[in-house]
Structure to design on (655 residues):
């Protein structure tokens, strides 16, 4: 099977005292074996909730709704029992987060924590074997002086180092899929650069697939082969990496590209922000979630959600402007 | 209006004593720069470079360990907090965290009016509206927002409230401490444009602190790159991007991911090695020598001075 992961019509909501927060409202996409897929979106887009739904890491108020399907290597994850999910987490599917400190126990030396993860899935190994496996991992993620660092505590590591430990932990059991949720957002740009290079190398070596969640289009351009752009709990556009930058076919994607600075470009270009703010997910907009901020919106946009239009191999977009009946004036997608 | 600089900082130094040990954090060590009226200096650098400490020392939230701060021709380095108070009308600050920098128990009107009361510009709540409403509109919010609490707004909107509060006294210098880092990218551009437009209108100066080199370019006339408490390079904004001289600046620029996949594939590996050393024990000589691909013997022995190597372009490096 080509797709290591296949998500169909995923809907995830949080049942809060303020009402139902519809974080993910019908998301369908897949991840191929050995590819790095980028999920791009801003606050409230649903990108993090989508990825956390895969491993069911959301809190008790979260509900993955009826009709959602998450197929991993042909196996349906939404109906698995806790024990079966645990066997998959950290072994077949691993995850790393933005803040490594929240995943590391401050009271236990780092080496021991990594060893624990390996032991969970390889109970037959003895202490010495586990230790040498950990040291080998530290070496792989280029942690300097690995023997010394084995006994060190998380607070003795810098942010970048901790993230390397997280990557080591995530890769410890050679997962088939690694989900990385904004792992470099909180890091300095020079450290981010090192971590991204490392992820690329490790991915090439191991052949694991990666879902990389970020708001940074620059990171996406450097790392990913395909991109999914999310907004308001839905996928706006999906395309190959070159396509999305050269031939974007959604006003939100266009807006993002215009709003970000490009160090390679001339300063004369003034940044064009996207006016307005993201929608309230307790009361999601009826039609297209981006309509309120879209400079090209028509009357129908706020009323009825558009259908996806297929635009060539692997490229689709959800926008009324692409409909054959769409008017030509003020339409950036007219050929 | 005189032609003297709005702000002149000379050899600014700020050290922090560590509580338990005899060690000292060399947060800022001999920084000098000036900002003319109506212009923006962008101060960039990574964790531990001292840019935020520098900003807070300039505004006297921290007391300088050494150096001079001259605001609009007046030496404010040794003034007492009481003497400083009237001058604070001229110098205001916008903070990084739009969630922590607004009082959760005050409605927006009161948040923006607070500086007006503090400086005796108004004495009763009735007068607040005359200042607050135009300010709200100026930052892209509405009068209706005045009666709401901060938690009812998004990050970007809260930052606008923070900006309104900073500008309501019509200051001449605003220190922006990473005002956009916590915001979504599409909103960052809104705030940057707002700040720029206001500057064009009123001729105010900004000290704009950021770690995002690519965003700083749209806001700054001059850019200073800091590393471990010192100024590595200081020049006109475009120069930094076109002709970076300091190896750290080059490494920094090379690390920024380019939102262009074709260029990204062609880009040679120009990132940086190693981690940022601790400001408690900064490396000897040039503080960057431990990570510098061009380091020579002299680099670990002698700290280079910040010198002008071409008109308007200063760099602290033994290569020049």
């Amino acid at each position: 099977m080509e797709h290591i992961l296949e998500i169909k019509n995923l809907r995830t909501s949080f049942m809060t005292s303020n009402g139902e927060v519809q974080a993910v409202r019908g998301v369908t996409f897949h991840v191929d074996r050995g590819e790095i897929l980028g999920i791009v979106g801003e606050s409230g887009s649903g990108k993090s909730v989508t990825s956390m739904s895969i491993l069911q890491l959301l809190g008790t108020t979260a509900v993955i709704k009826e009709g959602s399907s998450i197929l991993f290597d042909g196996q349906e994850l939404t109906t698995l029992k806790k024990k079966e999910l645990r066997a998959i987490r950290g072994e077949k599917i691993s995850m790393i987060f933005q803040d490594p400190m929240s995943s590391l126990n401050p009271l236990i030396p780092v080496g021991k924590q990594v060893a624990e993860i390996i032991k969970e899935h390889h109970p037959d190994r003895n202490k010495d074997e586990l230790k040498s496996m950990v040291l080998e991992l530290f070496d792989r993620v280029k942690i300097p002086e690995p023997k010394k660092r084995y006994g060190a505590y998380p607070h003795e590591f810098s942010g970048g180092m901790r993230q390397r430990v997280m990557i080591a932990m995530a890769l410890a059991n050679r997962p088939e899929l690694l989900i990385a949720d904004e792992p470099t957002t909180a890091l300095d740009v020079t450290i981010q650069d090192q971590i991204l290079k490392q992820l690329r190398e490790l991915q090439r070596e191991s052949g694991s697939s990666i879902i990389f969640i970020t708001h940074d289009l620059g990171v996406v351009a450097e790392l990913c082969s395909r991109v999914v752009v999310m907004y308001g709990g839905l996928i706006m556009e999906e395309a190959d990496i070159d396509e999305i930058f050269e031939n974007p076919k959604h006003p939100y994607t266009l807006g993002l590209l215009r709003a970000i600075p490009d160090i390679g470009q001339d300063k004369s270009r003034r940044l064009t922000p996207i006016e307005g703010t993201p929608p309230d997910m307790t009361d999601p907009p009826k039609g297209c979630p981006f309509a309120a901020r879209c400079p090209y919106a028509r009357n129908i946009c706020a009323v009825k959600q558009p259908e996806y239009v297929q635009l060539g191999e692997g490229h689709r977009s959800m926008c009324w402007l692409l409909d054959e009946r769409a008017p030509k004036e003020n339409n950036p997608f007219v050929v | 209006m005189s032609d003297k600089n709005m702000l002149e900082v000379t050899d600014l130094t700020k050290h922090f004593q560590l509580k338990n040990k005899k060690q000292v954090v060399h947060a800022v060590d001999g920084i000098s720069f000036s900002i003319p009226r109506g212009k923006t200096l962008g101060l960039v650098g990574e964790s531990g470079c001292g840019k935020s400490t520098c900003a807070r020392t300039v505004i006297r939230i921290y007391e300088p360990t050494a150096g001079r701060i001259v605001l609009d021709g007046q030496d404010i380095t040794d003034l007492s907090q009481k003497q400083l108070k009237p001058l604070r009308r001229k110098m205001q600050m916008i903070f990084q965290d739009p969630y922590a920098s607004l009082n959760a128990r005050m409605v927006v009107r009161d948040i923006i009016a607070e500086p007006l009361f503090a400086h005796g510009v108004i004495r009763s709540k009735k007068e607040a509206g005359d200042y607050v409403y135009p300010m709200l509109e100026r930052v892209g919010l509405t009068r209706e927002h005045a009666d709401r609490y901060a938690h009812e707004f998004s990050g970007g909107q809260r930052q606008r409230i923070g900006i309104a509060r900073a500008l309501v006294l019509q200051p001449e210098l605003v220190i922006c401490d990473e005002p956009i880092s916590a915001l979504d990218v599409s909103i960052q551009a809104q705030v940057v444009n707002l700040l720029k437009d206001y500057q064009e209108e009123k001729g105010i100066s900004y000290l704009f602190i950021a770690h995002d080199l690519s965003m700083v370019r749209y806001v700054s006339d001059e850019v200073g790159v800091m590393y471990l408490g010192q100024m590595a390079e200081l020049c006109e904004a475009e120069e930094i991007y076109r002709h970076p001289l300091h190896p750290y600046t080059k490494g920094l620029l090379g690390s920024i991911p380019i939102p262009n996949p074709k260029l990204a594939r062609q880009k040679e590996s120009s990132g940086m090695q190693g981690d940022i050393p601790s400001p408690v024990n900064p490396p000897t000589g040039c503080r960057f020598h431990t990570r510098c691909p061009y380091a020579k013997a002299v680099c670990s022995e002698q700290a280079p001075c910040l010198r002008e190597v071409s008109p308007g372009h200063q760099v602290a490096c033994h290569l020049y």
